């Protein structure tokens, strides 16, 4: 590869990196920080002495402009102040001041975290801490507030004053931890220059002696106009009590480890908008966070509590998206939900659209039902209920088209009425009308319109086993039955046995157990689904065999069971699991024609042993 090729490759890689920068940033999968810079540059530094010199000269780039400085005017008390007022909260890592004059004999560095309402001293600088401030010196006492390291008169020019927010030796693993933030953040910085030094070895000592005479002030005022003059000989400048070549307030915007870029606070979005060096305050948040400081989660990402990134492990701790199935723009965090899910998910969708409701907009709102052919995320997933106005129970608040089960679309039928929309009489009932349907009072069945007894069996094939009859292949009668997939969506989760339901189950040990049964119906059936109807539960079963039926004539096909026992945990007892096959025996409610499941009912999972016992019982004719 030639050198030229290599260069081209490098350019290509750089370009790729640039293009990638938008998506695959350093923040991807990691804690990240915006670049650090001088918080003072590009901002106005307010000083007490307003004459004489442009304060921004001390915050310009010392490499580009090494010979520019700010110098104070002469004040009566020999004091001056420099304020840096930030428009937002920032993190300050360290301060370095390079003096052109001798360093002050006494000065303080203070910060405010509340836009100047209250102030806190970060560090006190004095040649003699005890005489100047009555404080111990950190030279002799570690971590003391005052230090004498940066206050001697020598060198006369170029002396530095250094402050580090996080003192060396004091371990601070994670810059995003609350402890670190309490140390690092500020909205204002104030340097109070309290006592000037005179330069002991300066050739200008004599002129220094006059520096407090007010007559000198007019001279000083001329100085800023010639800042680039090789100043070493400028007598008037040397009479200023304080002169600062450079003030570096190194810091970064406050983003809790969730951003690597910052924009002007409240300003335009363009990164190039003003100058180049200013450290801006509004974070460009990643990890699904939001806010000026990425201090909260983005609107649809409140499934977990917000957390700062972990600066020591690098974990980004991103916000987690709420599952709202595309029906909401916002969610909020609920501590109660968080606890109830064992600390995995706490998001509650706000303002579910498209006629949905629920924590995850996962249900159709009353009066609407799931459209069976459409995915839950479809805006048309919920369609209006339609119920037969004659056969269904009217809704209280008129104007609604009807009420139906939000999942199955099953309408609320009057007694003796069946069908999804309550459009006809149940088997064994007659007289479809505003009062519902009446039960037949016939040995077999009756005409559904007139109620007259019918001699013949109904068209539907009933499975009445003759006494002593034998049913071959009881277990393998329907080998090709379609395997229904049981999504939790379809079943009422409270009724679905998640293992927490405990019921006292009755067991069948022998044929005589079966023969002793005094139940009005005995069937073999598989449970299709369970529905929470509010006041009661309804379990849909597919009847495979009718071993005994009472007043209600039973046929093969889908029937409803009405479990009466409903535990506080929301289980039916005995447990009826959708998808499982059972031997079911129980009583019936003759008035309504309902098949009941009570604690006295027999609900036994279908096994080959049971199949054998049932065959035996049939053979003996006791079933
Ligand atoms: C101070 O200097 C800066 C840039 O160097 C300039 O923008 C600003 O207007 C000056 N201020 C005064 C009061 O001269
Ligand atoms: C500081 O001043 C006190 C009295 O004001 C004096 O006793 C002490 O020796 C001084 N310390 C130094 C290091 O000069
Ligand atoms: C300072 O330097 C300037 C030229 O750079 C010269 O004209 C002036 O006389 C000097 N002043 C003193 C006090 O040396
Ligand atoms: C950050 O990660 C470190 C190391 O994995 C861990 O000890 C510390 O507890 C974490 N901090 C927080 C706030 O979770
Ligand atoms: C039905 O599902 C069961 C278990 O999930 C499986 O063993 C069986 O093969 C399936 N039957 C058919 C017909 O797909």
Automatic annotation (TrEMBL):
CDD domains: EGF_Lam. Residues 1-252 form the Laminin N-terminal domain. Disulfide bonds join 352-361, 413-422. Residues 1-24 form the signal peptide. Residues 201-238 are annotated as: Disordered. SMART domains: C345C, EGF_Lam, LamNT. Residues 501-622 form the NTR domain. It comes from the Eukaryota. GO terms for biological process: animal organ morphogenesis; axon guidance; basement membrane assembly; cell migration; substrate adhesion-dependent cell spreading; tissue development. Residues 203-218 have a biased composition (Polar residues). Residues 322-384, 385-439 form the Laminin EGF-like domain. It is found in: Secreted, Extracellular space, Extracellular matrix. PROSITE patterns: EGF_LAM_1, EGF_LAM_2, LAMININ_NTER, NTR. GO terms for cellular component: laminin complex. Keywords: Disulfide bond, Extracellular matrix, Glycoprotein, Laminin EGF-like domain, Repeat, Secreted, Signal. SUPFAM superfamilies: EGF/Laminin, TIMP-like. The keyword Repeat applies. This is Netrin-4 isoform X3. It comes from Ictalurus punctatus. The gene is si:dkey-202e22.2.
């Amino acid at each position: 590869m030639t050198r030229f090729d290599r260069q081209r490759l490098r350019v290509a890689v750089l370009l790729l990196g640039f293009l990638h920068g938008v998506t695959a940033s350093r923040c991807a999968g990691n804690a990240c920080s915006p670049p650090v810079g001088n918080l003072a540059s590009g901002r106005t530094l307010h000083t007490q002495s307003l004459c004489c010199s442009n304060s921004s000269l001390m915050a310009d780039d010392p490499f580009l402009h090494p010979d520019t400085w700010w110098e104070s005017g002469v004040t009566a008390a020999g004091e001056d102040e420099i304020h840096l007022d930030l428009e937002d909260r920032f993190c300050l890592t360290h301060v370095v001041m390079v003096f052109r004059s001798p360093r002050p004999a006494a000065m303080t560095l203070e910060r405010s975290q509340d836009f100047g309402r209250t102030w806190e001293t970060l560090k006190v600088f004095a040649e003699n801490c005890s005489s100047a401030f009555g404080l111990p010196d950190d030279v002799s006492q570690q971590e003391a507030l005052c230090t004498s390291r940066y206050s001697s008169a020598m060198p006369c020019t170029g002396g530095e004053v250094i402050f580090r927010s996080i003192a060396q030796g004091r371990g601070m693993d994670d810059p995003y931890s609350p402890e670190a933030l309490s140390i690092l953040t500020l909205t204002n910085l104030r340097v109070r220059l309290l006592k000037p030094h005179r330069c002991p070895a300066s050739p200008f000592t004599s002129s220094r002696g006059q520096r407090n005479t007010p007559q000198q002030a007019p001279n000083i005022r001329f100085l800023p106009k010639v800042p680039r003059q090789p100043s070493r000989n400028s007598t008037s400048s040397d009479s200023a009590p304080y002169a600062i070549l450079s003030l570096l307030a190194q810091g970064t915007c406050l983003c809790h480890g969730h951003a690597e870029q910052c924009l002007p606070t409240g300003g335009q979005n363009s990164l190039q908008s003003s100058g180049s060096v200013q450290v801006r305050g509004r974070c460009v948040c990643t990890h699904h966070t939001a806010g000026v400081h990425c201090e909260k989660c983005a609107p649809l990402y409140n499934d977990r509590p917000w957390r700062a990134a972990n600066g020591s492990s690098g974990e980004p701790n991103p916000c987690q998206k709420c599952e709202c199935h595309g029906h909401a723009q916002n969610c909020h965090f609920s501590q109660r939900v968080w606890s109830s899910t064992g600390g995995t998910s706490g998001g509650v969708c706000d303002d579910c659209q498209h006629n949905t409701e629920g924590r995850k907009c996962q249900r159709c709102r009353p009066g609407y039902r799931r459209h069976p052919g459409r995915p839950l995320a479809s805006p048309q997933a919920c369609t209006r209920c339609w119920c037969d106005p004659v056969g269904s129970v009217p809704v209280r608040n008129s104007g609604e088209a009807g009420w139906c089960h939000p999942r199955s679309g099953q309408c609320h039928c009057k007694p003796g009425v069946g069908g999804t929309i309550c459009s006809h009489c149940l088997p064994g009932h007659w007289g479809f009308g505003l009062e519902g349907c009446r039960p037949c009072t016939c040995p077999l069945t009756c005409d559904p319109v007139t109620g007259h007894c019918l001699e013949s069996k109904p068209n539907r094939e009933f499975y009445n086993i003759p006494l002593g009859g034998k049913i071959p292949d009881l277990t393998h009668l329907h080998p090709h039955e379609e395997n229904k997939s049981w999504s939790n969506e379809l079943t009422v989760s409270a009724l679905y046995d998640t293992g927490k339901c405990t019921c006292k189950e009755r067991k069948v040990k022998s044929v005589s157990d079966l023969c002793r049964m005094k139940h009005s119906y005995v069937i073999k059936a598989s449970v299709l689904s369970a529905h929470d109807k509010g006041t009661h539960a309804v379990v849909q079963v597919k009847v495979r065999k009718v071993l005994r039926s009472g007043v209600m004539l039973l046929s093969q096909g889908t029937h409803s069971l009405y479990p009466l026992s409903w535990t506080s945990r929301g289980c039916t007892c005995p447990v009826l699991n959708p998808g499982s096959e059972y031997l079911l025996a129980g009583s019936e409610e003759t008035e309504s024609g309902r098949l009941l499941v009570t604690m006295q009912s027999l609900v036994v999972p279908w096994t080959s042993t049971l199949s054998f016992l049932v065959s035996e019982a049939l053979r003996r004719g006791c079933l």
